[in-house]
Specification:
Number of strands of chain B: 18
Structural class of chain A: mainly alpha
Order of helices and strands of chain A: HHHHHHH
Low-confidence stretches of chain A: none
Oligomer: heterodimer
Number of helices of chain A: 7
Distance between the termini of chain A: 57 Å
Largest interface: A-B, 53 and 37 residues
Strand content of chain A: under 5%
Structural class of chain B: alpha+beta
Mean pLDDT of chain B: 84
Helix content of chain B: 25-40%
Largest sheet of chain B: 13 strands, mixed
Order of helices and strands of chain B: HHHHHEEEEEEEEEEEEEEHEEHEE
Strand content of chain B: 25-35%
Helix content of chain A: over 70%
Radius of gyration of chain A: 18 Å
Distance between the termini of chain B: 58 Å
Mean pLDDT of chain A: 83
Number of strands of chain A: 0
């Protein structure tokens, strides 16, 4: 049977999960460098325990490790997220429109930095990574309903903050 | 709107009705913009292959590890997983009930999976299993509800006092403390109360007060009067009339020197408390006083 100790299996687990794990940690704490370190550490732990963790369980194992060991250390640090400017595919927009979009994005970035960490993570995993609520629930180790609640509150908070209510 | 409707909306899970309602709200444009622009956000670059290479070079040297033998480990894991799955689906299928309720002083309308309609009077609740609805049209009712049942398999309403079953019809069931009434407005209804089984054709009623079957007057209208925001009674003891008044207005009613066993015939409005109080007091020849959410019906004891 497949085993995580086999190089091929291990590499495929890494290819399937590392990017989202990186984003997951980045959304929570807004520190790129530490998100890189956290991914490395979680995968080292997985390698050390490869005989005990089946390939199917590897994903939840990685998120548990990331949640338990690493995140507590950097929790206290201030969040400063920046999202790479999306390349503008439409160049025929008016300058006013582009300016308005840019201003909106600045407000959105700002509002995101003020969101509680778990709501921000849920919101961005869905918006950027296209993750379903059930997948996010698995990563966070909570129920789908809890994720829906976080999403609902996140949307409400962002909208109110951006509209200045 | 259902719980967490913003999350449901984003996931395309709102019903058409809810979506239309949400779209007509003031804040919809803001949410729509938020949805559009947030989908263009990007996370920082992360090069999977170079990260993997770095990981292998820095941390993983020799892949010749000794693995502990676990001859039964896999079997036990699978067995446990199957057990959890069976238990989980058992609870999911059996316990996931949908329920609707209407609080005091309010009425609610619900559409069942087969498009049958249920109107809930004040202080009433229904629950049923959506999953199994096609095979088993069964509803638990506490309080009072009017049903317009779509044609199909047997449709059963269970209450604390009796069971009502039909094939496709319109009927009203009222299950209150010491009071149980079923009125059939269309089709044929079967009522089971203790060991009595009775067939009710359209335009007839079945009434039990204090555990005894009572001769009741038959409905003359096409639907119960409370649907039209009025509570009607024909020869019903006053105390049940007063309890209905409490439910319709979420108030508390007390009496002094009033014989609440006397039969009351008449109706009261479910929207105008002052009118309702007069409608009860005048034909009963009693007085009333109100104080906040409390009403006192009394008889002046001048004759003593």
């Amino acid at each position: 049977m497949d085993n995580v100790c086999e190089d091929q299996v291990y590499s495929s687990v890494f290819r399937a999960n590392s990017k989202t794990l990186f984003n997951f940690i980045y959304y929570k704490f807004g520190n790129e460098e530490k998100a890189h370190d956290a991914v490395q550490e979680a995968f080292v732990k997985l390698w050390e325990n490869c005989g005990k963790v089946s390939p199917e369980k590897a994903k939840s194992y990685l998120y548990t490790v990331a949640n338990n060991t690493y995140l507590n250390v950097i929790k206290a640090e201030k969040v400063r997220l920046k999202y790479a400017e999306p390349t503008l595919e439409r160049s025929n927009e008016s300058p006013e429109f582009l300016l308005e979009e840019k201003e909106y994005k600045e407000k959105l970035d700002n509002a995101l930095n003020h969101l509680p960490e778990n709501q921000r993570t849920t919101f961005l995993l869905n918006r950027i990574d296209g993750k379903k609520y059930a997948e996010i629930a698995e990563m966070e180790g909570v129920s789908v309903k809890a994720i829906e609640k976080r999403m609902h509150l996140a949307l409400k908070f962002l909208r109110e903050r951006i509209d200045g209510i | 709107m259902q719980e967490n409707y913003l999350a449901k909306w984003l996931n395309g899970e709102l019903s058409e009705e809810e979506l239309a309602k949400f779209k007509s709200s003031e804040e919809y444009a803001s949410y729509e913009k938020l949805e559009r622009i947030s989908s263009s956000l990007r996370a920082p670059e992360f090069d999977v292959e170079s990260e993997l290479e770095k990981l292998k070079k820095d941390h993983i040297a020799e892949p010749d590890k000794v693995r502990p033998l676990q001859p039964y480990g896999k079997f036990l894991r699978i067995a446990a997983a199957i057990l959890v799955l069976i238990a989980g689906s058992y609870f999911y299928l059996n316990l996931s009930k949908t329920s609707y309720s209407s609080p005091l002083a309010e009425r609610t309308e619900a559409i069942l999976p087969d498009n049958s309609e249920v109107f809930l009077n004040a202080g009433s609740k229904i629950s049923f299993s959506k999953k199994n609805w096609e095979n088993k049209r069964e509803i638990d009712l506490e309080g009072e509800a009017f049903f317009k049942v779509a044609k199909g398999k047997k449709f059963t309403v269970s209450t604390s006092q009796g069971i009502v079953s039909v094939l496709g019809t319109q009927f009203n069931v009222e299950d209150r403390k010491d009071f149980f009434e079923v009125s059939c407005y269309e089709g044929l209804v079967q009522v089971q109360f203790q060991d009595i089984e009775k067939q009710l054709p359209a335009g007839t009623s079945f009434l039990v007060i204090d555990g005894r079957v009572v001769e009741s007057s038959d409905p003359t209208t096409l639907e119960p009067s409370w649907i039209k925001l009025e509570s009607s009674f024909k020869g019903i003891p006053l105390r049940y009339v007063l309890r209905e008044l409490e439910r319709q207005y979420d108030i508390s009613v007390e009496t002094k020197n009033v014989d609440t066993r006397l039969l009351f015939t008449g109706s009261f409005s479910n929207t105008d408390l002052k009118m309702a109080l007069k409608s009860i007091a005048t034909p009963s020849r009693i007085q009333f006083k109100t104080e906040g959410d409390n009403v006192l019906f009394y008889v002046e004891d001048t004759l003593q």
